[in-house]
Amino acid sequence: MHDALVIYNTLPDHVFDYLKMIFGLHSNNVSDPLYNSYFQYIDKWGNSDSTSDFFLNDNRTSIRLNAFIMLFSRGNYMVHAFVMIAISFIGQFAFYKTFKEYFLKKEILLALVIFVTPSILFWTSGVLKEPLVVFLLGIFIYFYFQIFVHKQYKIKNVLFLMLSICFFIILKPYVILMAAVPLFIYKLVLFFKIKKVVLFYFFGIIFIYSLSITTFKYVFNKDVIQTIVNRQNDFVNLSKGGIFLLNKTKYVRLDVKDMKSVLMVDSVKMLCKIKPHSKLMYWDVNHINNLRDTLFDYDNQDTSIFHFHSASPPAGSGINISKLENSYSSFAKLIPLSLFNVFCRPFFYDSHSFTELIASLENLFILLFLLFCFINGKYNNKNSNLLACLICIVLLSFLLIGLTTTVTGAIVRYKAPFLPFLLMIPLLVLDADKLKRYSIIKRFVDTK
Question: Is 23 in the same domain as 158?
Answer without folding.
Answer: yes
